[in-house]
Amino acid sequence: MKKIVSLMISVIVLTLSGVRSTQAQVLEFTPNLPKSEVKKSPKIQESTPSEIQESPSSKTQASSPAILTPLKPSSPPQPQPKPQNIDTSTDDTRLVAVAPDELFAGGSDSLVARAVGSAEGTRTPEGGKTWAYYGHVDPGNGAWNMGSFSYQHGASSPDDADRRQLDRLWRQYQVIQESAIAAGLRLGLEEQLNGIDLANQAPLAALDEGGYVDRLRQAYERGFRGSEAVLQARTYSYLNPRTNRWEAPGLGNTLEGISRDQARRQGAIAEAMSYHQQSQVARSRTSDDERVSAVPK
After folding, report:
1. At what angle do helices 226-236 and 255-294 cross, to 10 degrees?
2. How many percent of the chain have pLDDT more than 70?
3. How many Cα atoms occupy the beta-carbon half-sphere of 238 within 13 Å?
4. 204 FRET partner, CA 20 to 30 A, in 118, 248, 261, 279?
5. Has residue 147 been placed in a domain?
6. Is 152 part of any domain?
7. Dihedral angle, C-alpha 205, 269, 136, 176, nearest 10 °
């Protein structure tokens, strides 16, 4: 009996030992493949931060500005020629220019006030004041006029009327002067005063397109000089370049009527200019005499 038990225990021990050995062989089993068929796993290389690059999809790319193709005109613009200066010089001293400050200096006693007032009939060429200066009815529209310039926009007195209109004429003269420079013209005293007087009489004729400066340039281009050029410019300033019609109903809307009125005003301004120049010469001589008498002998 004891032999049988010992024999059974030996069988069990041998059986358990074979099972462990079999498991060990299974766990350590590596198939014997040919070397050509053995594939190694790729080696993962660690990248340093400096070697790491972002993919284009991970970057926020700034959109480039759209390229605009400029529109091309159907025909290239033609360059505008610069106006050439026109030689308006003559031997007439009336064409010597005077600075604007001198033209308007003195208010109601300024050269502008005396010259335009002479054309209006409110002042004498010497600068005296006529009855019309203190107030009269405008023959054209029936308004009440006052002052040297026949001002009719509600002034309290003739002096107030002169102050108001002198301020307006100063601004209008700046427009005339700038237009003359752009047209290549150098205005002399006669041209200056007649332009200012025309602005006082009819602002559009003096300042609008086809007005005084444009007509003056045309007159010089046609060969007129001096007073003849000024009369041409004053007269044709009333001709509307858009309609080619006269626009001076108070003067009859005729070439003859307009030209006659402009010549009359131009003549009155010439008398005031002549007296002004004589006064300038007289004052200059008096000043020279005073300086000579002041020199100790």
Report:
1. 140
2. 63
3. 24
4. 118
5. yes
6. yes
7. 30
Q: Which residues of 180-191 are buried (b: 16+ CB within 10 A; e: fewer)?
A: beebebebbbbb
Q: Is 289 helix (H, G, I), strand (E, B) or coil?
A: helix
Place of tokens 């358990």: 16
Mark 239-276 as b/e (b = at least 16 C-beta within 10 Å). beeeeeebbbeebeeeeeebbebbeebbebbbbbbebb
Per-residue pLDDT, 108: 96
Pick the closest to residue 275 from 176, 169, 149, 127 (CA basis): 127
Dig out the tokens for 293 from the structure: 């008498």
Does an H or E element contain 288, and which? helix 255-294
Write out the two tokens for 168.
């307006």
Determine the Cα–Cα distance for residues 143 and 139; give it in Å rounded to an integer.
8
> pLDDT for 9-25, tens place per residue?
554 444 434 433 333 33
**Mean of per-residue pLDDT scores for the chain:** 76
Indicate whether 110 belongs to any domain. yes
Residue-number span of the structural domain to which 226 is assigned: 93-290
Q: Are the C-beta atoms of residues 185 and 89 closer than 8 Å to each other? A: no
Q: Identify the CA nearest to 112 among candidates 202, 236, 19, 196.
A: 196
